[in-house]
Amino acid sequence: LAKTTQPISMDSYEGQEVNITCSHNNIATNDYITWYQQFPSQGPRFIIQGYKTKVTNEVASLFIPADRKSSTLSLPRVSLSDTAVYYCLVVNTGRRALTFGSGTRLQVQP
Amino acid sequence: ETGVTQTPRHLVMGMTNKKSLKCEQHLGHNAMYWYKQSAKKPLELMFVYSLEERVENNSVPSRFSPECPNSSHLFLHLHTLQPEDSALYLCASSQDSRVADQFFGPGTRLTVL
């Protein structure tokens, strides 16, 4: 099971781009990198998933280098409503469970 | 979002009570999950159901008893809980039990006195 390491917290201001990096040194060939977002007193919400290179959707971009030992979630022009905890997960398609770490608490200031 | 609903949203119970948490998904998914989120701890998977069959039990104490009568409903029956069981209990569902795209409900905030 690949362990992930990400910063405990980050601060930003409205309108800035935020990049949250996650390291997963022992990622396996069958593993995908997945990010979730969680607001206080709510369940996590799937944001984005990727295997390698770059993935972009309406919410975020995910950058994965060739060695796949790290990944970066990029949130363009954050707003106050992006204040949340962001979880980086390494998910094996053969497993049933999602293993959540402590996540990165992002605080966006006005 | 109303894809996955949980009731009640808040529950306070004594250690001798018996209560049940309910989860319902309206997404046509085949897999459902119970997670526990304690203060200052990561989410912990408790149970996984796939096509109404329990396929994973993560060493959860027997005072937590899940039930999945059909693919749309999931219950967590609680009895003789301890104060340390106070937490946010989250239900999730996915198309099948081997995908990363899980949809979570809003959770039930449980307080055990």
How do the helices and strands line up, and which of them pair or pack?
The complex is a heterodimer of chains A (110) and B (113).
Chain A: E1 9-13, E2 18-23, E3 31-38, E4 45-50, E5 53-56, E6 61-64, E7 70-75, E8 84-92, E9 104-109
Parallel strand pairs in A: 1-9
Antiparallel strand pairs in A: 2-7, 3-4, 3-8, 5-6, 6-7, 8-9
Chain B: E1 4-7, E2 10-13, E3 18-25, E4 31-37, E5 44-50, E6 53-57, E7 64-70, E8 73-79, E9 87-94, E10 103-104, E11 108-112
Parallel strand pairs in B: 2-11
Antiparallel strand pairs in B: 1-3, 3-8, 4-5, 4-9, 5-6, 7-8, 9-10, 9-11
Overview of this protein structure:
The complex is a heterodimer of chains A (about 110) and B (about 110). Chain A contains no helices and nine strands. With about 110 residues, chain A is mainly beta. In chain A, the strands form two sheets. Chain A has a five-stranded mixed β-sheet with strand order 1-9-8-3-4, with no helix packed on it. In chain A, strand 6 and strand 7 form a beta hairpin. The mean pLDDT of chain A is about 90. Chain B has about 110 residues and is an all-beta fold. Chain B has no helices and eleven strands. Chain B has strands spanning about 5, 10-15, 20-25, 30-35, 45-50, 55, 65-70, 75-80, 85-95, 105, 110. In chain B, strands 2, 4, 5, 6, 9, 10 and 11 form a seven-stranded mixed β-sheet that branches. Chain B is globular, with a radius of gyration of 13 Å. Chain B starts with a strand and ends with a strand. The interface of A and B includes residues 91, 93, 95 and 97 of A.
